[in-house]
């Protein structure tokens, strides 16, 4: 199929490039009469353009069909010839995948189960500005906190 597709594609390109285009362009350049130009162009398109286009499209389709058939034949041949060669490799590959999974499952049973520690974030109140009654200094403090004034050491409560 690929050979016939290539032959048809080549013939379509040759007809299109060597016959259709020169005749089409020649008719446009040489003919002055509009009625004759329409007649010749219609004749050229019908008898050279359409067949070359059909040959190109069908040739491409046959080549693609042949390529897919060849790929499928190659896959089938690989399966027939390589089944015994790949069987041992497949067993080793499956064991290599199973082994780490089994080890992981065995390790899970040996690990003591402890509950995860919950970390509760501390909720802090927004700072509050407290003014000292003794000296008038201001200090930023958290609500509910007691601290000494930086200047006179008086105890401040927020």
Keywords for this structure?
mainly alpha; elongated; two-stranded antiparallel ribbon; 2 helices; 4 strands; 158 residues; transmembrane; transmembrane helix; 2 domains; membrane
Overview of the molecule:
The strands form two sheets. The chain has a two-stranded antiparallel sheet. The model has no long low-confidence stretch (mean pLDDT 78). Strand 3 (146-148) and strand 4 (155-157) form a beta hairpin. The protein contains two helices and four strands. Helix content is 67%, strand content 10%. The chain is mainly alpha-helical. It has helices spanning 2-30, 34-110, and strands at residues 127-131, 138-142, 146-148, 155-157. It has two domains: 2-107; 127-157, no CATH class. Helix 1 (2-30) packs antiparallel against helix 2 (34-110). It is elongated and about 115 Å long.
List the helices and strands and how they pair.
Blueprint: H1 2-30, H2 34-110, E1 127-131, E2 138-142, E3 146-148, E4 155-157
Antiparallel strand pairs: 1-2, 3-4
Helix pairs in contact: 1-2
Keywords: Membrane, Transmembrane, Transmembrane helix
Transmembrane segments: 7-27, 39-58
In short:
The protein is mostly helical and 158 residues long. The protein is 67% helix and 10% strand. Keywords: Membrane, Transmembrane, Transmembrane helix.
């Amino acid at each position: 199929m690929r050979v016939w597709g290539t032959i048809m594609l080549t013939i379509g390109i040759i007809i299109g490039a060597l016959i259709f285009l020169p005749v089409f362009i020649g008719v446009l350049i040489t003919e002055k009469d509009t009625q004759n130009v329409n007649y010749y162009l219609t004749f050229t398109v019908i008898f050279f353009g359409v067949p070359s286009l059909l040959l190109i499209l069908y040739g491409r389709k046959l080549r693609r069909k042949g390529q897919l058939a060849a790929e499928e034949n190659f896959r089938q041949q690989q399966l027939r010839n390589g089944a015994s060669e790949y069987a041992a490799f497949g067993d080793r590959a499956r064991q290599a995948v199973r082994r780490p999974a089994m080890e992981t499952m065995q390790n899970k049973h040996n690990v003591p189960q402890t509950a995860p520690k919950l970390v509760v974030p501390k909720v802090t109140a927004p700072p509050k500005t407290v003014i000292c009654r003794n000296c008038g200094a201001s200090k930023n403090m958290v609500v509910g906190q007691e601290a000494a004034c930086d200047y006179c050491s008086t105890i401040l409560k927020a």
